Amino acid sequence: MLGVGLGGFVDGILLHQLLQWHHMLTSTDSDNIGIRYYPDTTVHGLEINTVWDGVFHTFTWVMVLLGLALLYSRVQQSRGRVWTSRALWGWVLVGWGVFNLVEGVVDHHILGIHHVRSGDNQISWDLGFLALGALLVMGGWLLQRGATFKDTASASVGSSRTRS
User: Fold this and answer.
1) Strands 149-151 and 81-83, how do they pair?
2) Which residues pair with 149 in a beta bridge?
3) Could you read off the pLDDT tens digit of each residue along the chain, which spans 164 residues?
4) Looking at the chain, which terminus has fewer C-beta neighbours within 10 angstroms, N or C?
5) If we measure between CA atoms, which residue out of 143, 144, 146, 106 comes closest to residue 126?
6) Interatomic CA distance for residues 71 and 15, integer angstroms
7) 1: helix, coil or strand?
8) C-alpha distances in Å from residue 15, one per residue of 21, 125, 144
């Protein structure tokens, strides 16, 4: 969940805000579900797209909060068992990749409400987004696969016994 949220923030901040390649509803003139078109070239259209970008960012923020809650719960339940950062960052990359794959398939291909970059080569941009998602999932899975942990509880128990 943490990776889904962080990946969504990268998408929203980089593609929606900084590069302004798209917003949530910028391709609804050619979507597959009949949503009214809100072009980002008009004030009203940009306002509606900004609201839906905010809904998207709210979702990603909730995913980060849930991911942090799960991480905190995991740490609390396994006191003394410290995982290497490979596990955390590997799963974050997997989550980011899953975000790209789901968002890419649903929003770009099934619903067609926006594309990574609209225009002549939009299918190439959309497929590249999916390829990046697949690479993130595979790379993250491989990274976390080699993760080890250190059991600090047994070391602290042993040291407290020697002090008594």
Assistant:
1) antiparallel
2) 83
3) 999 999 999 999 999 999 999 999 999 999 999 999 999 999 999 999 999 999 999 999 999 999 999 988 887 777 666 667 888 899 999 999 999 999 999 999 999 999 999 999 999 999 999 999 999 999 999 999 988 777 666 655 444 433 33
4) C
5) 106
6) 28
7) coil
8) 6, 12, 28
pTM of the predicted protein model:
0.83
The amino acid at 89: W
Are 24 and 55 in contact by the 8 Å Cβ rule? The answer is yes
Q: For residue 113, what are the CA distances in angstroms to 59, 103, 127?
A: 17, 11, 15
Residue type, 155: A
Angle at 83 between CA 80 and CA 87, to 5 degrees: 160
DSSP state for residue 161 in the 8-state scheme: H
CB 148, CB 88: distance < 8 Å: no
| 159: its two tokens | 């040291």
Lookup: tokens for 126: 């959309």
